[in-house]
UniProtKB/TrEMBL annotation, chain A:
Signal peptide interval: 1-31
Organism: Plasticicumulans lactativorans
One BP term from GO: rhamnose transmembrane transport
Annotated GO MF terms: carbohydrate binding
Entry keyword set: Signal
Family under the similarity heading: Belongs to the bacterial solute-binding protein 2 family.
Name of the protein this chain belongs to: Rhamnose-binding protein
Compartments it resides in: Periplasm
From TrEMBL, chain B:
Membrane topology: Multi-pass membrane protein
Record lineage: Bacteria, Pseudomonadati, Pseudomonadota, Gammaproteobacteria, Candidatus Competibacteraceae
Subcellular location: Cell inner membrane
Protein name in the entry: Autoinducer 2 import system permease protein LsrC
Pfam family, one: BPD_transp_2
PANTHER family registered for this protein in UniProt: ABC TRANSPORTER PERMEASE PROTEIN YPHD-RELATED-RELATED, AUTOINDUCER 2 IMPORT SYSTEM PERMEASE PROTEIN LSRC
Organism: Plasticicumulans lactativorans
TrEMBL record, chain C:
Pfam families to which the protein is assigned, alphabetical: ABC_tran
Bilayer topology: Peripheral membrane protein
Name by which UniProt lists this protein: Rhamnose ABC transporter ATP-binding protein
Boundaries of every ABC transporter domain copy: 19-261, 272-515
Gene3D superfamilies per record: P-loop containing nucleotide triphosphate hydrolases
Record-level Gene Ontology MF annotations: ATP binding; ATP hydrolysis activity
Chief place of localization: membrane
Transmembrane regions listed in the UniProt entry: none
Gene Ontology CC: plasma membrane
């Protein structure tokens, strides 16, 4: 369902109408449980995809109605107004992809005081304003995924290199650290990391660094670039050097920005969290909270349907899964979404 | 010894340094001076060379254009958007479009500096941010990725013409135009006179406003051209394109002996300055120096080149250098 | 030799001098600024240093204030030899100067200007703020100094808010803040009104009473006679004479200033002036000059004499289109012309060789060739494409005509001597083939040899039928070269002389504004 809620005083009426319509359309009997998915803004493919996953979960659970809503512009004010109206309508749970971690805290606190289960997903609300936060992934999962992916592409053995953003980028360095730890495992003993270089997220520098890797390591078979500028530059360098099929590029990137490189053959597979899965898992977790089957306490493992058990971390942060793999079989489909 | 001959020697000195760096890198990685890599460097330096030549005109007239990189980003984004929405458009038209966008942006600088009389460093500092912001707005914060650009759009700078990429040829063309302009066109002479002594230029009837408008327009148009080339070469358009590139351009000029005080500079010097930077940028990844040291090394290289130049400006300093470098 | 060289017997100062200069020499590349300077100043005495432009007065001031160091000679203070290596040294010795152009910082306050470079500092250890600027002391001392000068100026006012006269008073207060025993006043009244000059007189009288020795430099004879006790005359870097002001009159002073240099041979060949090429009628602008009228004929050199600031260069700039006159008419070859910029002046074949060749004439970073052809580019290459052979031919022609001494025409101008630079600057304008050429101080600051070359060349020009305007502050040059001389004072033409009527005394008197 694609409920476009006007960002105005009519929100309440509109929402009530939509809810009523959904009510009639989805279930023959009155829905026992209503969950709202508040996205950053409407009309964005990424959130449409999240909603798609949420509806999938709602169908699997049964008796749950999921309503996607959000402001037309990605502002915290718009989200506050919408959450207020959701409170008035006595929704059972609210999943928020927050535009601002702190600005939303008062209103979500109010919702929780009224017994509404509030969680954030993808973009967090500060801890005091939600029961838990669902991250699409975490550094360990990303690092493991990147190594597994390149290993599969180059046939399990050979030399690889990493083309990162800046040498100071915290998240990139965390991923690189986990890549190194993963490589230390016996099953990856046949993969050799030649170098880690930094392209500073600049297309020209990334391109030169990629060229440098190709020149310095003639036996190089794979370049991992956990940044879109890096993966683009490395792919370009592989194509320009005529090394397609000999050297493969992999990493993290949006399908819409990577589709061309998959087509050129420079990229076999790349990864990113899948918004469908985010929406799916968040809906399952919200449902478990409403039913009292989970509390959201740190250390708890929550069953999220096909995504398996998701563990709640120290600060109420739950990492969903390893990133989702995109390759030539699905990239075009996802490129249309995000 | 005449200073003119000395100037030529200063450029010889820079050329010798370039050869020395190449030789040093080749010792570690012989492929560095292979034909393929030299071609790569020729292609890689083209954008910096033409941009530095345009900037040198601005600096020559005692100005500076900090907005060239932002102009590259905005014109490049405009060209990418055009290609996305009209992929059938012949590439020369896209090129012309990008150049015109750049020219319009350059004229904004020109008007601010020549007519509104804002010091160029302030005016272009402002337009630098303005153009970057517009780049973001032009695409609503989105990127234009490879598959959204037409094949011809991407292929153009890579076209092989007589064994050299078209991009490298554009660099060559830029050098030829610059040489002809500074040596054989009256306007080129007048620019130097204006930078060398604005008040004397005024007495000769040289119009400062017209010339300032001209140099910023040229810098803008060249930035526009480079905008297309950049986006096509790296197959991506986003608001961070060429971030910090203006400093590389200015560094190339300064290393090449263009005086920030105006009136002094040569095409040869500027081209060598640009080659020096590109050589360093390309050599560092190959020699396997820790990436954490790279930025510092580039900075040190720039400083040494500039110090060498500054000392060369004084005759006694020159003799010192020549004694230490007896090679001719 | 001048007829009336009255050299009074050197008087003995009443008191022991504070300051004594003897046999001071100072040379710059190509120019000898001082050959034999002598001077003494006693407490409470005002000494006038007189001489023409270029006599060496400014060099003496710079030596006394530690900006230049003499090549030879002795400088004694209280009978002790001293070396002044910097302005700070001069201050320590109690010598302070008020300069022609006030050296001041507009954005700083009056008190800060007065104590710049020697702020009062707080006592005590540094952790209690010792060594920091003592603002309170600075303000109160500034207030005292200003009160001493009977000036109603708040020490906290930013300098830019003051009038020119008030700035002068601040300059004086600054000099006094050094507890100056010798105060040098270099053209202190140049930009003051009559009433303000009167205030200055009062201040000088007060300083005299307090025992300060004052060196007074002025072109205005009435001031010299009103204020000074003694005079010292300089000419061409040499000491000429000294004496009591009471013993001389202005004619005698002028004779001593101008002296024998008039005997210098000028290569002036008599020419028969042709038709009128330039007529200027009642030219004026609101601030700099007014009611300037004159005519100029082919083959004629018209001299413009006057003191610095008399408005001569301003008239020339207006003729050349650098500035715009607001009143009056300019006719060239009988036709009225509007000249709004230098291009239009060149189109009317009128060119101007400006006074300050470093600033307004030469492009030092360019070659001789590029400098010489610069104003002719538009004429020679109307389509904007240069032809090197043509440029070289032009450069050769004028380079040789003006005897420019250089290794090659590609040599940079910065490598040439001042005289040769000046030849190139004149050459570049001649290369435009003008009918009228205005030379503003063409021989200022260049060596004797180059001077002679420029003079010879001027004669050659008028013989070829050009009309020349010579603006010069050197009396011998103006008198030796000109067919007629116009004397300007305070923006107006005060007198006109031709070869039969011109005399040094009359010209100097007219220029000083006396009657």
């Amino acid at each position: 369902m694609n409920t476009r809620t006007p960002h105005s005083t009519h929100t309440r009426i509109a929402l009530a109408l939509c809810a009523a319509l959904g009510l009639g359309a989805l279930t023959p009997t009155e829905a026992a449980e209503r969950i709202a998915l508040v996205v950053k803004n409407l009309g964005n493919g990424y959130f449409e995809a999240a909603n798609k996953g949420g509806q999938e979960a709602a169908r699997e659970i049964g008796g749950v109605e999921l309503v996607m809503t959000g402001p037309t512009q990605p502002t915290a004010e718009g989200q506050i107004e919408i959450i207020n109206s959701l409170i008035a309508q006595k929704f059972d749970a609210i999943i928020v992809m927050a535009n601002d971690p702190d600005a939303l805290v008062p209103v979500t606190k109010k919702a929780m005081q009224r017994g509404i289960k509030v969680i954030s997903a993808d973009s967090a609300i500060a801890p005091e304003g939600r029961i838990l936060h669902l991250s699409p992934s975490n550094a360990q999962l990303v690092g493991e995924k990147l190594i597994a992916m390149i290993g599969k592409t180059i046939g399990g053995s050979g030399e690889i290199a990493v083309l990162s953003a800046t040498a100071q980028a915290t998240n990139q360095n965390a991923w690189i650290e986990w890549m190194k730890r993963t490589l230390a495992k016996p099953e990856y003993a046949t993969l050799k990391l030649d170098a880690v270089v930094y392209g500073d997220d600049q297309s020209d520098k990334s391109y030169r660094e990629a060229n440098g890797l190709l020149a310095t390591y003639p036996n190089l078979k794979g370049i991992i670039a956990p940044t879109t500028v890096g993966i683009t530059a490395a792919s370009r360098a592989v194509v320009d050097k005529g090394l397609v099929g000999k050297v493969f590029v992999s990493g993290l990137g949006l399908p819409s920005e990577m589709a061309g490189h998959v087509k050129s053959g420079a990229v076999d597979a790349f990864a990113l969290w899948n918004p469908i899965d985010v929406g799916y898992s968040a809906t399952w977790i919200a449902h478990r909270l409403v039913k009292g089957e989970a509390s959201g306490k740190p250390g708890e493992e929550i069953d999220a349907g096909r995504m398996g058990r998701i563990k709640v971390g120290d600060k109420g942060d739950a990492a969903m899964a390893e990133p989702f793999t995109f390759d030539k079989t699905n990239v075009d489909e996802f490129a249309r979404i995000f | 010894m005449s200073l003119n001959r000395f100037l030529k020697q200063r450029e010889t000195l820079l050329a010798l340094i370039l050869v020395a760096i190449s030789a040093g890198v080749a010792w570690r990685a012989p492929t560095f001076i292979g034909l393929a890599n030299l071609h790569e460097i020729a292609t890689d330096s083209a954008i910096l060379i033409v941009m530095a030549l345009a900037q040198s005109l601005v600096i020559m007239t005692r100005g500076i254009d900090l907005s060239v990189a932002a102009n590259v980003a905005l014109s490049g984004m405009a060209a990418a958007q055009l290609s996305m929405h009209a992929p059938w458009l012949p590439i020369p038209l896209v090129l012309l479009f990008a150049t015109l966008v750049g020219l319009a942006l350059g004229l904004v600088n020109g008007v601010l500096v020549a007519w509104v009389r804002i010091p160029s460093i302030v005016a272009t500092l402002g337009t630098m941010s303005l153009f970057r912001g517009l780049t973001f707005l032009a695409a609503d914060g989105k990127w234009v990725a490879q598959h959204e650009m037409s094949a011809a759009f991407l292929a153009f700078p890579r076209l092989d013409v007589l064994g050299l990429s078209l991009l490298a040829w554009i660099g060559v063309l830029g050098i030829v135009v610059a040489v002809v302009f500074t040596r054989h066109v009256a306007l080129g002479r007048e620019l130097r006179a204006l930078g060398g002594n604005p008040s004397a230029a005024k007495y000769v009837g040289i119009r400062e406003t017209t010339l300032q408008l001209f140099v910023f327009a040229v810098a803008g148009a060249v930035a526009g051209l480079c905008g297309y080339l950049w986006v096509a070469r790296y197959a991506i358009a986003y608001d961070g394109v060429a971030l910090g590139f203006e400093l590389q351009v200015i560094a190339a000029c300064v290393i090449g002996g263009v005086s920030i005080a105006g009136g002094v500079g040569s095409v040869t010097g500027t081209v060598l300055g640009a080659l020096f930077l590109v050589l360093i940028y390309n050599a560092l990844p190959v020699v396997g120096i820790s990436p954490f040291w790279q930025t510092a090394i580039v900075g040190a290289a720039i400083l040494s080149a500039v110090i060498l130049n500054a000392r060369g400006d004084r005759t006694d300093g020159l003799r010192l250098i020549l004694r230490r470098h007896p090679a001719h | 030799m001048m007829a009336a060289t009255v050299i009074p017997h050197s008087p003995v100062p009443v008191r022991e001098p504070i300051l004594e200069l003897e046999g001071i020499e100072k040379s710059f590349p190509g120019v000898r600024a001082l050959a034999d300077a002598r001077l003494s100043i006693a407490p409470g005495e005002v000494v006038a240093l007189v001489g023409e432009n270029g006599a060496g007065k400014s060099t003496i001031v710079k030596i006394l204030t530690g900006i230049y160091q003499p090549d030879a000679g002795s400088l004694r203070i209280d009978d002790q030899p001293v070396h002044l290596e910097s302005t700070q040294d001069a201050w320590k010795q109690g010598i302070a100067a008020i300069h022609q152009e006030t050296v001041a910082f507009d954005e700083l306050s009056v008190a800060e200007n007065i104590f710049l470079g020697h702020h009062p500092r707080r006592d005590g250890p540094w952790w209690r703020g010792g060594g920091l600027v003592d603002w309170a002391a600075m303000r109160s001392r500034a207030r005292e100094l200003l009160a001493q000068l009977e000036a109603d100026i708040d020490p906290d006012t930013p300098l830019k808010a003051l009038s020119v006269a008030q700035k002068h008073i601040v300059e004086i207060a600054k000099a006094l803040s050094h507890e100056a025993r010798i105060l040098i006043m270099d053209e202190p009244t140049a930009s003051l009104s009559q009433r303000e000059i009167h205030d200055l007189y009062r201040i000088v009288a007060g300083l005299k009473r307090a025992g300060t020795g004052i060196l007074f430099i002025s072109h205005k004879f009435d001031e010299i006679f009103d204020l000074c006790d003694r005079y010292v005359v300089m000419r061409d870097g040499h000491y000429v004479s000294e004496g009591w002001i009471a013993d001389v009159d202005s004619d005698q002073l002028v004779s001593m200033m101008v002296g024998r240099t008039l005997t210098q041979v000028f290569p002036r060949v008599d020419t028969v002036p042709g038709e009128e090429v330039l007529r200027v009628e009642r030219l004026g602008n609101p601030t700099e000059f007014d009611d300037v009228s004159f005519a100029l004929r082919r083959g004629e050199i018209l001299g413009f004499y006057g003191l610095v600031g008399a408005g001569r260069s301003e008239v020339m700039k207006a003729l050349f289109g650098i500035t715009r006159p607001t009143r009056g008419k300019v006719l060239i070859n009988g036709r009225e012309v509007q000249i709004a910029n230098p291009e239009q002046a060149a189109a009317n074949r009128l060119v101007y060789v400006p006074e300050d060749r470093q600033v307004a004439g030469a492009v030092l970073g360019m070659s001789i060739k590029d400098n010489l052809t610069l104003p002719s580019l538009a004429r020679l290459f109307p389509n904007g494409i240069l032809d090197d052979a043509k440029e070289r031919a032009l450069t050769r022609e004028y380079g040789l005509r003006l005897v420019v001494k250089a290794a090659s025409w590609d040599q940079l101008l910065s490598e040439l001597s001042g005289g040769n630079q000046q030849k190139v600057v004149i050459g570049k304008w001649l290369a435009t083939r003008p009918d009228i050429i205005i030379l503003d101080e063409p021989t200022k600051g260049i060596d004797i040899g180059s001077k002679a070359a420029v003079h010879a060349f001027m004669s050659e020009l008028v013989q070829q039928g050009l009309a020349v305007i010579l603006v010069s502050s050197e009396l011998p040059e103006v008198m030796g070269m000109s067919d007629r001389i116009l004397v300007m004072h305070e923006g107006r033409v005060r007198a006109e002389f031709d070869r039969s009527t011109m005399s040094a005394e009359a010209i100097v008197t007219a220029a000083s504004g006396s009657h």
